[in-house]
Amino acid sequence: MLPLLLILPIAQTPLALPQPAPQEIVQPQEVRALPGQLDTVPMFNSNSPEWMKTEGILLSTFPPTDKKVPAAHLNFPFQGRFDLFTHHFTHTPKDLQTFYLGVILHNPGKKTVTVDVLQAASYLMQDAPYITLPPYLENPAGNVYSGPGDRAVNDVLRGKRQADFPSQMVIPPGKSRLLMNHPIPVRNLEKPVNGRSTLMRLRSSGTVYAASLAMFAKKNPDNTDRAPTLAEWQDLLLTGGLAGPRDKSPTPPGQTTGQLIYSRVAGVAQGSAWKAQLVDTPNATQLSIPQPGKAFSYGLDTLKAGTFGTGQVQTAPMLVRYPDTAYQAHGNYGVEYNLSLPLINPTNQPQTVTLTMETPLKEDKLTQGGLRFRKPSLDFPFFRGTVRLRYNDDQGQPQTRYVHLWHRTGQVLEPLLTLNMPQGSRQQVQLDFIYPPDSTPPHVLTVRTLENR
After folding, report:
1. Which residues contact 44 (CB under 8 A, 6 or more apart)?
2. What span, in angstroms and rounded, lies between the C-alpha atoms of 102 and 228?
3. Residue of 392, 391, 390, 449 lying closest to 423 (CA atoms)
4. Residue 77, Cα to own-chain centre: how many angstroms?
5. CA pair distance 330, 265, nearest whole angstrom
């Protein structure tokens, strides 16, 4: 009798299963241009170089007269309402030195000028780290954020002014004052990377010039760090050149071939807010909901090569800029959108209507006849910020909600808001947000009526 042959299984490394191909989803629907337009309030917009390595001038609207590097000064005076936005980072500076970010305001006139600081917020990346969050989180207290820009504009949306900014600054004739003198430390952090985002709304009683500058911390006699003085900032303004390294230069507006480089913004943009009444026609007073099973969208923060077929570029124009920086304020960082939707259900049946703020795959023309999404979505988050919703609930009670959005590009989302609208009823919805610096445009606001069941 032959012995039994025992065959043992050979241990195998499990094969990695092939990932299914991404599924593209097309929403065939109308995409509308956003009514309204940007206001004319100028915004001091300091976002280049985004990553600082060397000291220097980030943005100066001072006159070039008597300056060592005249080209670093754009000669733009502010008066009345203006906004100030700065967004800069640093990575492993030499000897892990602490950068300071200074903002100087100067009164060139012969009368005292008063600058009211209406709202102001400034945050470090270490105090508002970039973290992954669910698509929606209720944010009534403002303690949900992902990134310093997200956190700063959230405060300003709520009308806040941080305690370390004065409510008012008095500038005598011919004098300068420091509006900001804040550090960006990297020493003792787990990774030597940090940054600071700042947004302020200001009102000046007279003409002022403004400058943002980067300087390493000065040393005390005991070798500890100290903040630069006003005199040291003024010396840098008079004798310094532009901070570096410089970002990629933008594609000229007339160029239609090759890679499109938007570049970073350094200059004065025109526009602080976009107010829009979303209605059926320019002379209408109501917005008819879509037919059941249908939807329409409005473009938000659309830009060159990303208008979703509307042809509308919402990007703020630059009043002055450096030649190697963006031709427009791509992204409209710090701009407040106020969107009013006077909805009406003109049908003879109750309808369920949803509102969703979403980020389709970027297109200039709708190549597939609608907005394109993807399952799974692309991994990078394209919107990180808080929106404010105001409406009446199903019991007719007024509601105000702050909701934090963390959305990836191409992501298929649940609705931001669902409304039950009886036949013939009206519902006023207000959606407000300040476009967060930690986001990437464009987006849409979609109104959808669900299928009747």
Report:
1. 59, 61, 78, 82, 83, 84, 85, 210, 212, 268
2. 9
3. 449
4. 25
5. 8
Taking CA atoms, 3 is separated from 6, 8, in Å, by 9, 15
pLDDT digit string, tens, across residues 142-151: 999 999 999 9
Closest CA to 95 of 183, 228, 186: 186
Closest CA to 300 of 332, 260, 329: 332
Report the candidate in 128, 143, 129, 79 with the shortest Cα–Cα distance to residue 106. Answer: 79
pLDDT digits (tens, 9 = 90+) for 9-65: 444 445 566 777 889 999 999 999 999 999 999 999 999 999 999 999 999 999 999
Residue with token string 């042959």: 5
Distance CA(89)–CA(193), nearest Å, equals 8
The pLDDT of residue 14: 53
Measured CA distances, 216 to 55, 139, 210 (Å): 7, 36, 20
Buried-state track 178-197, b at ≥16 Cβ within 10 A, e below 16: bbbbbebbbeeeeeeebbbb
CA dist., res. 352 & res. 289, Å (int): 10
What is the chain's mean pLDDT, rounded? 95
Place of tokens 């980020």: 359
